[in-house]
């Protein structure tokens, strides 16, 4: 018995007919659909067709051989939408069928196209590409001889697609179920629709192509399908497993592997910022290299003074080092709870009824004293908590500095054995000061130079020292945006050939449009915003560079001019430094404004998906991950017209000067009142987000490694 699996409408039935006509081999199906015929002796057939995921099979013996047929997901889903309209639910709407199949909410549609493909590529012993099957079905079938003792083929009986569509084939017409001849011909014509690749271009609307790519683009790239419908060559090292299962020629390694050491203290730090996400996604992308027995790469990590093989942290990497994230969330919740307790004590000491009585009788002196005490208490607590967090961060950094100075001497010889050392954050240069190995540094931004007013002195000093190290040793540099690259060339007069531009990206498995309103409501209710209705969302660390003060000022103007506007401003994120602007404590600026604090990663997409727009009016960004993540959810962005935000957001939102309160108000007004504009910007936001992928980042980073090592 061999499992013959595929996502529905991917050529499985066509292949079964090839096996039957050319080789005389029968097959049957295995499914879990109640009321649909299932052969009791299905396991006795040489081939058993299924669309289920591997863990749903019975028997579940993983040693049973499996063949998987893969097809461009857009073709498969277009055909599935027609199949539902014509056979499963006659009269249903093709567009809605297609949209629902793309999203595959809650693992419907056999797990969804990406999940089905990903699980089966790992499970299958052999993979057949549908597009190759159409060209030469016998050639693809003959590859099965490694798994099954095939009889000699009768190539004169190879069925053409037209024969299957207008005849009564063994499979796909209901022949095995004893249907009438008229019914069998009808089913055959509906089951065998076109029999060619790329028909999605004629039938899938552009907005659904983009929606599909937002959900499945990462998987499509990994298996060789491109946005424009071509099939590209697979990456010889990242995709070695699929290349082997497709029966393609593999490139053999003729030289010893290139040895890379990646400084990785950031991934085990308590932070949960963009730099950490950048490094984790890179490491995820590199994992297949180390699992490839013929890999030309050997990658190690340097963490807290020790060197580890990348694979040592495989499970932690795949889980995003989530323990740190959960720990940070607990800290935020603890801080919030502490303040609430103190606030309750204050209320007990000075009852609200007494304050109301004073205010009612216009005894405002006492009222103002009370409000002043409340503000001072809040400010004092904020300062105390900020001080505690700084001490924790300082101790963490001092530990790294001390450890780096000691380990630099101890590990110098080991460092020199590497072909390249990659510093994903320039601040962590200390252990490598004496290394003679080539060094590559990722520079995420130059905020300490471009806008030093938004940094603490210690941050400016650390960044300056990091850049001094980069310049003194002649390190090559990866800039995460064209904007950052231009800043490097301008501010430090670096040679253009020393600076490589490699964009960051967003995790599309985490950040995508959420359609299930029941799930969305649970998330919104969790953060107390379920009843708000329309809202703009800001999600960032609450610090001066993010410009939340002007955001609130612009929103206040909007509310002042439109008192009855059904719109709120939701501000999410942890507190950073210097949050003393009066707007945060002035009731006049807090109308329709809701602070929800730290948001769990798994909840962010639902908050974005239900927002009118995201507001991200930062004064400067090296890349700008939050806006990109919002655009992945089809959420337009009101953004500061500066730095990398111009290239990352582009047509996916509305740009404005971050210090122009009136213009901020006008953009808020446009995006709320002009629904046609909002809908267009929503589509453009999603399309813009498709230009960024971690797969592309990983491939380009590997290319940079090669260029530096070989030059």
Explained architecture:
The protein is α/β, with parallel strands linked by helices and 711 residues long. The protein folds into 4 domains: 2-245, 3-Layer(aba) Sandwich (Rossmann fold), CATH 3.40.50.300; 258-321 and 417-506, Glycogen Phosphorylase B (Rossmann fold, 3-Layer(aba) Sandwich); 328-398; 517-692, 3-Layer(aba) Sandwich (Rossmann fold). Helices cover 48% and strands 12% of the residues. It contains 27 helices and 18 strands. It has a 7-stranded mixed sheet with strand order 8-7-6-9-10-11-12, with helices on both faces. Helix 3 runs parallel beside helix 10 (206-222), helix 12 (274-291) crosses helix 27 (694-710) and helix 21 (548-561) packs across helix 25. The radius of gyration is 30 Å and the shape is globular. 40% of the residues are buried. The model is unreliable at 324-340 and 358-362 (pLDDT under 50).
Topology summary:
Elements: E1 2-6, H1 12-23, E2 27-29, E3 47-50, E4 66-70, H2 73-88, H3 94-103, H4 113-123, E5 126-129, H5 130-135, H6 137-142, H7 161-166, H8 181-191, H9 200-203, H10 206-222, H11 240-245, E6 258-263, H12 274-291, E7 297-303, E8 306-309, H13 314-318, H14 322-349, H15 352-360, H16 364-415, E9 420-423, E10 439-443, H17 447-450, H18 457-473, E11 476-479, H19 482-492, E12 499-501, H20 517-526, E13 534-539, H21 548-561, E14 567-572, E15 593-597, H22 601-609, E16 613-616, H23 625-632, E17 637-640, H24 645-649, E18 653-656, H25 661-673, H26 675-689, H27 694-710
Parallel strand pairs: 1-3, 1-4, 2-3, 4-5, 6-7, 6-9, 9-10, 10-11, 11-12, 13-14, 13-16, 14-15, 16-17, 17-18
Antiparallel strand pairs: 7-8
């Amino acid at each position: 018995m061999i499992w013959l699996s595929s996502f529905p409408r991917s050529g499985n039935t066509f292949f079964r007919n090839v096996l039957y006509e050319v080789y005389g081999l029968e097959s049957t199906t295995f499914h879990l659909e109640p009321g649909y015929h299932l052969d009791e002796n299905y396991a006795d057939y040489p081939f058993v067709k299924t669309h289920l995921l591997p863990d749903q099979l019975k028997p579940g013996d993983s040693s049973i051989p499996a063949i998987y047929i893969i097809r461009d997901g857009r073709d498969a889903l277009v055909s599935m939408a027609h199949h539902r309209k014509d056979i499963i639910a006659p009269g249903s709407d093709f567009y809605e069928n297609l949209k629902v199949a793309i999203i595959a909410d809650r693992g419907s549609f056999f797990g969804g196209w990406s999940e089905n493909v990903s699980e089966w590529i790992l499970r299958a012993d052999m993979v057949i590409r549908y597009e190759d099957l159409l060209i030469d079905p016998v050639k693809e079938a003959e590859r099965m001889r490694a798994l099954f003792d095939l009889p000699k083929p009768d190539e004169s009986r190879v069925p053409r697609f037209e024969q299957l569509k207008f005849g009564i084939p063994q499979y796909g017409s209901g022949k095995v179920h004893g249907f009438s001849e008229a019914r069998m011909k009808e089913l055959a014509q509906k089951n065998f629709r076109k029999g060619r690749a790329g028909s999605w271009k004629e039938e899938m609307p552009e907005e659904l192509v983009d929606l599909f790519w937002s959900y499945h683009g990462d998987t499509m790239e990994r298996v060789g399908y491109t946005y424009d419908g071509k099939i590209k060559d697979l990456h010889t090292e990242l995709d070695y497993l699929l290349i082997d299962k497709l029966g393609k020629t593999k490139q053999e390694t003729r030289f010893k592997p290139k040895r890379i050491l990646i400084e990785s203290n950031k991934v085990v730090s308590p932070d949960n910022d963009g730099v950490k996400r950048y490094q984790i996604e890179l490491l995820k992308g590199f994992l297949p290299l180390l699992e490839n027995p013929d890999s030309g790469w050997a990658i190690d990590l340097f963490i807290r003074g020790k060197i580890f093989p990348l694979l040592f942290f495989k499970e932690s990497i795949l889980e995003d080092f989530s323990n740190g994230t959960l720990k940070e969330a607990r800290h935020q919740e603890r801080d919030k709870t502490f303040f609430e307790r103190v606030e309750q004590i204050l209320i007990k000491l000075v009852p609200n009824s007494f304050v109301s009585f004073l205010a009612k009788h216009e005894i405002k002196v006492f009222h103002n004293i009370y409000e002043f005490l409340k503000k001072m208490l809040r400010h004092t607590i904020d300062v105390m908590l900020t001080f505690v967090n700084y001490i924790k961060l300082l101790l963490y950094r001092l530990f790294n500095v001390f450890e780096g100075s000691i380990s630099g001497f101890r590990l110098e010889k080991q460092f020199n054995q590497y072909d390249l050392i990659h510093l994903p954050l320039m601040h962590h240069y200390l252990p490598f000061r004496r290394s003679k190995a080539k060094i590559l540094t990722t520079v995420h931004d130059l905020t300490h130079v471009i806008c030093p007013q938004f940094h603490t002195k210690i941050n400016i000093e650390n960044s300056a020292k990091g850049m001094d190290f980069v310049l003194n040793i002649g390190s090559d540099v990866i800039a995460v945006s064209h904007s950052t690259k231009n800043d490097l060339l301008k501010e430090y007069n670096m040679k253009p050939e020393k600076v490589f531009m490699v964009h960051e990206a967003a995790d599309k498995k985490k950040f995508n449009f959420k359609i299930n309103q029941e799930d969305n409501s649970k998330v919104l209710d969790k953060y107390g915003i379920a009843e708000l209705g329309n809202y703009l969302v800001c999600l960032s660390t609450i610090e001066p560079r993010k410009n939340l003060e002007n955001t609130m000022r612009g929103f206040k103007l909007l509310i002042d001019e439109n008192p009855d506007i059904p719109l709120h401003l939701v501000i999410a994120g942890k507190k950073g430094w210097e949050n003393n602007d009066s707007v945060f404590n002035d009731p006049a600026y807090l109308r329709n404004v809701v602070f929800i604090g730290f948001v769990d990663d798994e909840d962010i997409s639902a908050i974005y998906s239900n927002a009118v727009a995201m507001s991200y009016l930062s004064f400067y960004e090296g890349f700008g991950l939050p806006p990109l993540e919002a655009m992945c959810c089809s959420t337009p962005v009101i953004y500061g017209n500066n730095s990398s935000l111009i290239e990352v957001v582009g047509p996916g939102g509305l740009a404005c000067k971050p210090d122009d309160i009136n213009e901020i108000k006008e953009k808020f007004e446009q995006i709320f009142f002009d629904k046609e504009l909002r809908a267009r910007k929503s589509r453009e936001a999603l399309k813009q987000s498709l230009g960024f992928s971690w797969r592309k980042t990983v491939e380009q980073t590997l290319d940079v490694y090669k260029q530096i090592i070989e030059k």
